[in-house]
Write a structure and sequence with these properties.
The complex is a heterodimer of chains A (about 325) and B (about 240). Chain A has eleven helices and 14 strands. Chain A is α/β, with parallel strands linked by helices. The longest helix of chain A is centred in the middle third of the chain and has 15 residues, at about 110-125. Chain B starts with a helix and ends with a helix. The longest helix of chain B has 28 residues, at about 130-160. The chains are: A alpha/beta (about 325), B mainly alpha (about 240).
């Protein structure tokens, strides 16, 4: 296995449910050792994408590769590499925690001394030592989630796919699970989904934002929250000069992207993303004068991941001047 | 094979950790006991045919009710609770999952059947028992149960509602069971077809002590057919 090879590769994944396209041409790569957060509103297609990566759902079109293995061609080989925690941690309620983990070890072909040692390590890490004799059905949500995580680690997989690992947990439990994920992220590739923004900033190297089934952003949390120095300038022009504004703004030096937000009461609003370390406000002013744009407003914004998220997933802009 | 055993082991434990296994075994032993001793003591015959022979009140009729009850939860419950997602993302083939679950159900029935061996042993001690037909009868009962359980597994794979799985499997099994007697109300030309389709006809054949290839093929293909369809139904979850 080549080290530079992507751990996960999604190639134009599509999933239709009847006439409804839940996931639309989603492509991305995850390198070995990365911790990637899937972010998106509920129903955006995060879970469906994960289900296609784990081989639970067959894509309508496109393919998913795990460690170079096409999930569709050789699902068994791909599934061996993956530890998966489905949404809401579905578990066998009638089983004892210890029996359940042993069952998973049976299926995952982890035997003998290795099994004993592996289960011990996992139980310690996930804090399950006190509940091994309990029925899964009696566990609190937090413990269920931990058993779900433990189950995903029995075969020591390279890749962990965790679907909303912290949903329904109280703040203390969330912190515990996050710690655990961060710890796991040091040695494994982790893909987790969430709709909780701070979680992504707390645990992920990279964020993939999915909205309406489409991939709308794939970047580091720093880039997406503008805290790397690449600020956002909000430019408002008079609506009649709006059509000329976009190319003009994009051509200004130090600008890395322009998004048309739409017409607001004071004029047509554009969000101009700046390259790191650049402040193109002066250049924008000059370009506007040169091209006859009527500038109503021009100021730099402090953005957060939350703004980017809302902007990308709803088109709305929340700004803190 | 390893995966089949892992799944079967889990299911079998689930049966014995819940009242299901005990209810099945006790009910079966009670009915089987009545059939034995009524024959042995009321009629004074060392004969086991009434036990194996299909009739509206017989151990095999009881299996028509018990088999769907045993199998109804096997897949429907996993679908309902969402554990199916866990199961289908384990490195296992759909066929191994279906086979494991089927074998667990068959093992439970085999335990219940095995315990009834106490009856022929006592009768054998008291009178002169012909063991040939007895062993053939047990084989027949096992095949008969296998066919009903396979139908049950299929129904459980088709729905997430255990009650629906039970009722549908029971109806199919009951039709295949009672059609044997209904042939008297049908045109004589249909009779061989109806006989061939009936699960009871083939059990009756084997209970006579004759293990005919046709009966083995009948049960074998019924089991294989239902289990293959169940695998198809499970594979549909990936769509």
């Amino acid at each position: 296995m080549v080290n530079s090879q992507a751990m996960v590769e999604a190639r134009s994944l599509c999933k239709d449910y009847g006439a409804n396209r839940a996931v639309d041409e989603v492509s991305f790569q995850v390198s070995r050792g990365e911790v990637v957060g899937f972010l998106g509103p509920n129903g955006a297609g995060k879970s469906t994408t994960m289900k296609m990566l784990t081989g639970y759902l067959n894509p309508t079109a496109g393919s998913a590769l795990v460690a170079g293995v096409d999930v569709g061609d050789d699902p068994i080989a791909a599934k061996r590499r993956i530890g998966y925690l489905p949404e809401n941690a579905p578990l066998y309620d009638d089983m004892m925690v210890a029996d359940f983990l042993n069952y998973v070890a049976d299926v995952r072909a982890v035997d003998g001394d290795l099994r004993k040692q592996r289960l011990q390590t996992i139980c310690r890490r996930c804090g399950l030592d006190d509940i091994l004799g309990k029925n899964v059905g009696q566990l609190s949500k937090g413990y269920r989630q931990r058993v779900g995580l433990a189950q995903a680690m029995v075969h020591d997989p390279d890749l962990l796919i965790l679907d909303e690992p912290t949903s329904g947990l109280d703040p203390n439990q969330i912190v515990e699970i996050r710690e655990l994920i961060r710890e796991l992220g040091r040695e494994k590739t982790v893909i987790l989904s969430t709709h909780i923004l701070p979680e992504v900033q707390a645990s992920c190297d990279r964020v993939i934002i999915i909205s309406g089934g489409k991939l709308v952003a794939d970047d580091t949390p720093e880039m997406l929250s503008g805290s790397d120095g690449g600020a956002v300038v909000r430019v408002v022009v008079r609506p009649d000069s709006a059509s000329a504004a976009e190319p003009t703004l994009a051509a200004v030096g130090g600008v890395s992207g322009v998004t048309s937000v739409g017409v607001e009461p004071d004029g047509h609003v554009f969000r101009v993303r700046c390259a790191p370390g650049e402040d193109p406000r002066e250049a924008i002013f000059r370009a506007a004068v040169e091209h006859g744009l009527v500038l109503i407003d021009l100021h730099r914004e402090r953005v957060s991941l939350e703004d980017t998220f809302r902007e990308l997933t709803t088109g709305e802009v929340q700004s803190h001047a | 094979m390893r995966n089949v055993m892992a799944v079967a082991k889990r299911e079998l434990r689930a049966y014995f950790d819940s009242p299901v296994a005990y209810i099945v075994i006790v009910t079966f032993l009670a009915v089987a006991g009545w059939m034995y001793f009524s024959t042995a003591f009321l009629l004074g015959r060392a004969d086991l045919r009434p036990f194996f022979q299909p009739s509206p009140f017989s151990p095999s009729m009881l299996l028509v009710i018990l088999a769907p009850a045993i199998t109804m939860r096997l897949i429907a419950e996993e679908t309902k609770s969402g554990t199916i997602e866990l199961l289908l993302t384990m490195p296992m083939r759909d066929s191994e999952i279906i086979l494991g679950k089927f074998l667990a159900a068959l093992a439970l029935v085999a335990v219940a059947l095995g315990l009834t061996l106490a009856y022929p042993l006592t009768i054998g001690a008291l009178g002169d028992l012909d063991w040939g037909p007895v062993l053939a009868g047990y084989l027949g009962m096992l095949l008969f149960s296998g066919a009903l359980l396979a139908i049950g597994v299929l129904c459980s794979a088709l729905t997430e509602n255990q009650i629906v799985a039970f009722i549908v499997a029971f109806l199919i099994s009951a039709v295949l069971y009672y059609i044997y007697w209904l042939q008297f109300f049908m045109p004589p030309a249909l009779s061989p077809v109806v006989e061939f389709l009936s699960v009871s006809f083939h059990l009756d054949n084997i209970a006579r002590g004759v293990v005919d290839t046709r009966d083995l093929i009948y049960y074998g293909s019924l089991m294989a057919g239902a289990l293959l369809l169940a695998m198809q139904a499970l594979a549909r979850r990936h769509a």
